[in-house]
Design goal:
Layout lengths: L20 E7 L8 E9 L13 E8 L2 E11 L5 E11 L7 E9 L9 E5 L2 E6 L2 E7 L7 H4 L3 E6 L3 E2 L14 E5 L1 E4 L2 E3 L11 E7 L5 E2 L3 E11 L5 E17 L2 E14 L5 E4 L5 E6 L2 H6 L3 E3 L5 E2 L4 E3 L3 E8 L2 E9 L7 E4 L4 E5 L2 E3 L4 E12 L12 H9 L3 E4 L1
Antiparallel strand pairs: 1-6, 1-31, 2-5, 3-4, 3-6, 4-5, 7-8, 8-9, 9-10, 10-11, 12-21, 13-14, 13-20, 15-17, 16-17, 17-18, 18-19, 19-30, 20-29, 21-28, 22-25, 23-24, 24-27, 25-26, 26-30, 27-28
Length: 412
């Protein structure tokens, strides 16, 4: 289960001297990369010489190339028994050109405490918030209260623009069950019972309940924040039929002056807990992993969509043969875009897009008892800045190609 831009372990031997410099070779391949490109790579611990594996779980890294210096986020990776097995690195590459292989001098030293400019993750009453630079990047709503069933029947994630402008909708407005970034199927059939984990109606009251933030799966630094939320999909009687693990990486960076981009890389696992097959069914407008934008977008009917070349369909706002969809919309006299990536390892999707601001991929699937399905998605959120052309005029197709083809990293 890899991160968006390469969590590979190179086949070549990777050797790091004690707190010394090692030359990394960065190969973008023949892919046109975004102007700012996140990169991650894991070096196996038994291939790293000189680093005392138990001296630190967090390292301060520096990459130098052609007189420029980049900060590298680094951590020790441990197995289920707590043994150190690798070192994971995360940093940003800038202005990578197709075919231009470059060298970087890497230095690692132990780090105590939080690095300057790190993401901050805070547990609050009924929600958890991820901040960078003092501003919320996203807020995951975690409250569950049976007496407030209609307000708390699912966990979901609010997205924010600069200045903590909320871009998504809660339990208000048009279609109250549409909330932020959410997931569900209208017809979740278990034996002779069918549960609606999409609208979660009042006369059939299942719910999706946040259970915990999974320990050992988090990583906070100056470049990347990683979390994993566990949720349980429960029947009206409280029986768990589906367990959901939603892990995502958060990157925040400036692609142009005053234009922060947020990149969310999702790895979602759905696990069957029933004794009978679970049929995830519905239709493209009422099932899947979805985004619902703020109520003001619905009131203006102002959401427009861009699709890749070769997309087919359109009847009923349903689309096929699309690897990504980009939604453009205004909020508070500002203009934003959310680019939604679907991974080819996922079941073949049909997208549904509404001009009121709800969109996402749909598929149907059957989970046998104990079976799990792993899904990959990504969201890139940016504010459109017409005063900053060049880097701001990003190519969605190129971004998707970059997500699909990770930057390769090896030791020279």
């Amino acid at each position: 289960m890899g991160a968006m831009w390469s969590r590979l372990i190179p086949a070549a031997l990777l050797v790091l001297p004690t707190f010394g410099q090692v030359t990394l070779v960065v190969d973008p391949g023949d892919v046109a990369r975004p102007p700012v490109c996140p990169v991650t790579v894991t070096l196996a611990m038994d291939q790293v010489q000189g680093l005392a594996p138990n001296s630190s779980d967090h390292w301060k890294g520096t990459l130098k190339s052609a007189g420029q210096e980049r900060a590298v986020q680094a951590r020790t990776v441990r197995d289920a028994e707590g043994r150190p097995v690798g070192v994971e690195l995360a940093w940003f590459e800038v202005d990578l050109e197709p075919g231009e292989v470059g060298e970087r001098e890497l230095t690692l030293v132990p780090r105590d405490g939080r690095s300057q400019g790190s993401f901050v993750f805070a547990l609050e009453d009924g929600s958890s918030v991820m901040k960078k630079g003092g501003e919320a990047v996203w807020r995951h709503m975690t409250a569950w209260a049976p007496e407030r069933h209609d307000d708390t029947f699912r966990p979901y994630t609010h997205l924010y623009g600069a200045g903590e402008l909320c871009l998504t909708k809660g339990p208000d407005g048009l279609y109250p069950h549409h909330r932020g970034v959410f997931c569900g199927w209208t017809r979740t059939q278990v034996g002779d019972q069918t549960y609606n984990f999409w609208a979660i109606p009042k006369d059939n009251r299942p719910h999706q309940e946040h259970a915990e933030w999974v320990s050992g799966r988090g990583w906070l630094g100056s470049n990347l924040a990683r979390v994993c939320a566990r949720a349980e999909w429960k029947t009206p009687e409280g029986e768990v039929v589906v367990e959901e693990l939603r892990e995502w990486d958060t990157w925040r960076y400036d692609a142009a002056p005053g234009s922060p981009h947020v990149l969310l890389d999702y790895r979602i696992t759905l696990i069957a807990h029933a004794d009978e097959p679970i049929h995830l069914q519905g239709d493209p407008a009422h099932a899947g992993f979805q985004v619902r934008l703020a109520q003001s977008v619905a009131e203006a009917q102002a959401c427009t969509y861009t699709f890749p070349e070769g997309t087919t369909g359109g009847q009923g706002d349903n689309w096929q043969n699309a690897a990504w969809v980009a939604a453009g919309f205004p909020i508070a006299e500002r203009s934003f875009e959310v680019l939604f990536h679907d991974h080819p390892d996922n079941p073949d999707p049909t997208w549904n897009t509404r001009n009121y601001g709800r969109f996402g991929p749909f598929f149907q699937h059957t989970l046998e008892p104990g079976e799990r399905i792993e899904l990959r998605y990504a969201l890139r959120i940016r504010e459109r800045q017409p005063g900053h052309p060049g880097r701001e005029q990003l190519d969605a197709a190129a971004e998707h190609a970059s997500w699909m083809t990770p930057v390769k990293v090896r030791v020279k």
